[in-house]
Write a structure and sequence with these properties.
This protein is of the alpha/beta class and 260 residues long. Helix content is 48%, strand content 17%. Helix 4 crosses helix 5 and helix 5 crosses helix 6. The structure holds 4-(N,N-dimethylamino)cinnamoyl-COA.
């Protein structure tokens, strides 16, 4: 399927997805959300993709939020439909069984900040700016901001960002733990791809099980969470890659994982 608002390419074992509406600062309209939904399904079904980099096309924005022009005149029913679609797509991304790295190259506001929060790892360029401006528009964050931001930066910091609607720069995002690191703008994509390739060099099923255990465990009490880890650990022993990883170690040779 061809996309109007998304660029999708494969590079070895990684996929690069770019939200591609630079004239609207990559704002998420319904069509873009639907295309993102399709691309996530394609990635999920492709056994040769081990990790994903998600970024925004153009110089200025990762994603400047949900599309205000489209939302402005929505009826209650349309607004609800739009919210359900966005939440479904963001959750699908969060649950995708491959790690997703957000390469945040500019504005990540509202739904854009929330999109980065549905990714596993956030890398920011020096030009990146973050915020949840929704209350200034008369709405609440609607794509998980009140929940995922709180889990990443903590209660006090999330409340300050959401209640004030202020926009923070990359260095402040790093200080509060919203991003893992800040990178020179022209090196951002290469570093994000290098990180994705570093992940892709490991056993993909083990990485997938780690993602599921972390994501499920963070919402559970410690005993339940540790049981997820035990389950995941046990499951690894049914894979060829576990045999390969350990045999390669004992034979002192390079390993070759097959995603099996
Ligand atoms: N939507 C639509 N168009 C946008 C946009 C957006 N979010 N952000 C920017 N654009 C468009 C601008 O209208 C402009 O288009 P033209 O006028 O050239 O046609 C073009 O992108 C360039 O923008 P600017 O001219 O404004 O560029 P500046 O450098 O001057 O300013 C800016 C950049 C990022 C500071 C500014 O564009 C801005 O403040 N943008 C809006 C940022 C924002 O407020 N984002 C949050 C959107 S609200 C829910 C579900 C979801 C949500 C809420 C509820 N439910 C489930 C209930 C999510 C809400 C949001 O994300």
């Amino acid at each position: 399927m061809g996309f109007n608002n998304i660029l999708f390419e494969k590079d070895g074992k990684i996929a690069l997805v770019s939200i591609n509406r630079p004239k609207a600062l990559n704002a998420l309209n319904s069509e873009t959300l639907k295309e993102l939904d399709v691309v996530i399904d394609q990635i999920a079904e492709d056994d040769d993709i081990y990790a994903v980099v998600l970024t925004g096309a153009g110089e200025k924005a990762f994603v400047a939020g949900a599309d205000i022009t489209e939302m402005k005149d929505m009826t209650t029913v349309e607004g609800r439909k739009f919210g359900i679609l966005g939440n479904k797509v963001f959750r699908k991304l969060e649950l995708l069984d491959k790690p997703v790295i957000a390469a945040i190259n500019g504005f990540a506001l509202g739904g854009g900040c929330e999109l980065s929060l549905a990714c596993d790892i956030r890398l920011a360029s020096e030009k990146a700016k973050f915020g949840q401006p929704e209350v200034g528009l008369g709405i609440t964050p609607g794509f998980g901001g009140t929940q995922r931001l709180t889990r990443v930066v903590g209660l006090g910091m999330a409340k300050e960002l959401i209640y004030t609607a202020k926009i923070i720069k990359a260095d402040e995002a790093l200080r509060i733990g919203l991003v893992n690191r800040v990178i020179e703008s022209d090196k951002l994509l290469d570093e994000a791809k290098a990180l994705a390739n570093q992940i892709a060099a490991n056993a993909p099923i083990a990485v997938k099980l780690c993602k599921a255990a972390i994501n499920r465990g963070i919402q559970s009490d410690i005993d339940t969470a540790l049981s997820y880890e035990s389950e995941a650990f046990g499951e690894c022993f049914s894979t060829e890659d576990q045999k390969e990883g350990m045999t390669a170690f004992t034979e002192r040779r390079d390993k070759s994982f097959k995603n099996k």
